[in-house]
Design a protein that fits this description.
The chain has 386 residues and is mainly α. It is built from 14 helices and no strands. It is globular, with a radius of gyration of 22 Å. The N and C termini lie far apart (58 Å).
């Protein structure tokens, strides 16, 4: 018998599922980083796996950015580098520079006295050779370094592939890069991590050589790019996957639970070699599920997750600074920094800090971006009409 498929429901312009994923990612990242400061005992037991929120952000970035570029290729439109880089610049740089300069000029804002040279942050190279014993301030910008490197290389790579008419064979390049990351982690673990497994500096060495470098952390971005390519150029596959989106969601959650146990000791061989790949794969399955119109959570609206998704970048930039200031202030007032009350106060202050950054820097920068892009597009239209 021929397969009976469900009719596709028209997709929303705004995918609510992506908001839920962004909100989830920033929440678990925040609670994971909170363990660096004073924290309740239960918080560490529950959110020790929260570092994977960054991997979810990588999957989302790969999917969204590659999706925009692939869509232009599918419609046989040229990729505008000026539009692409202007969008990325005004979305990322103004808010990032604001926090960086606050850290640089006002040392009391730093969650740790040690700060890397300014050029490392400005050049987005902090993630290479990042030694936690020497640098402790704004270290979470390592993930932004990887994303900025990705934003630079992805459109150039796609342009070259398109120029040489590689077409669907590009999937082999993605697989090759994925495999290279996998092999690189094996080689680094055997040569650098295994000899120091009993060292007190193991954590710092593992982070410096495995966790932060771009060549070890491309799994999530590549999964996102692969999904974007699959959905753009293979609509029939996308349609079939839509019919099984709830099973995809369940499978993704199951794989994520499995990765939790594999990564229980993150400096171990299995976690180092297989963990990042399985986590990226798990979040990739969940992403494919939640963007499907037939998924159980596709139509779920939430003002909370929508607001958290909107503020996620600002929260990511400011949360360590705000936690540090909040704990310092309220501890002097007699509130235990390891208490639940202190956690609540830090959550509130971090949201306030994010709102300030969003409204004073992010939104004005996006308005400037839109004006510039409109001006460029109007000029192009005028030229074409003459």
């Amino acid at each position: 018998m021929p397969e009976i498929t469900k009719p596709l429901i028209p997709e929303r312009k705004k995918l609510l599922g992506l908001d839920h994923l962004r909100a989830f990612a920033i929440t678990i990242v925040f609670l994971y980083h909170y363990q660096i400061f004073g924290h309740p005992d239960w918080e560490q037991r529950i959110f020790g796996f929260g570092w994977t929120g960054v991997d979810l952000f990588f999957v989302l970035s790969g999917f969204l950015i590659a999706g925009q570029l692939f869509d232009r290729i599918k419609k046989e439109k040229s990729i505008s580098f000026s539009d692409f880089f202007l969008k990325r610049f005004f979305r990322i740089i103004p808010a990032y520079l604001t926090i960086l300069l606050l850290y640089f000029f006002f040392p009391f804002l730093r969650e740790n006295e040690q700060m890397a040279p300014l050029w490392r942050y400005l050049s987005f190279t902090l993630n290479f050779g990042l030694d936690l014993k020497k640098t402790g301030t704004f270290t979470h910008s390592w993930s932004l370094c990887i994303e900025e490197q990705f934003y630079l290389l992805l459109p150039l790579t796609i342009l070259l592939l398109n120029y040489f008419k590689v077409g669907k064979k590009a999937i082999y390049l993605i697989a090759a890069i994925f495999l290279t990351c996998f092999i690189t982690r094996i080689l680094i673990w055997n040569s650098t991590i295994k000899p120091v497994l009993n060292s007190n500096d193991l954590g710092a060495i593992w982070h410096e050589n495995i966790y932060y470098p771009t060549y070890c952390r491309l799994d999530g971005l590549l999964i996102g790019v692969a999904i974007a390519g699959l959905f753009t150029f293979y609509p029939e596959v996308k349609r079939r996957l839509n019919n099984y989106s709830n099973w995809l969601l369940l499978t993704g959650i199951t794989c994520l639970i499995a990765s939790y146990f594999i990564c229980e000791v993150n400096t171990g061989f299995n976690a180092t070699v297989y963990g990042f790949s399985l986590i990226a794969f798990s979040y990739g399955l969940i992403l494919m599920a939640v963007v499907s119109p037939l998924n159980v959570i596709y139509n779920i609206k939430s003002a909370i997750t929508s607001q958290l998704a909107t503020l996620s970048y600002s929260i990511y930039l400011t949360h360590k600074m705000m936690i540090h200031l909040t704990q310092h202030f309220f501890e002097n007032m007699g509130i235990d920094k390891n208490s639940n009350l202190m956690l609540l106060l830090c959550v509130v202050s971090s949201l306030v800090g994010a709102l300030l950054l969003r409204n004073t820097v992010e939104k004005p920068a996006l308005k400037i971006r839109d004006k510039i892009l409109n001006s460029i597009n109007n000029k192009d239209t005028a030229v074409l009409s003459t």
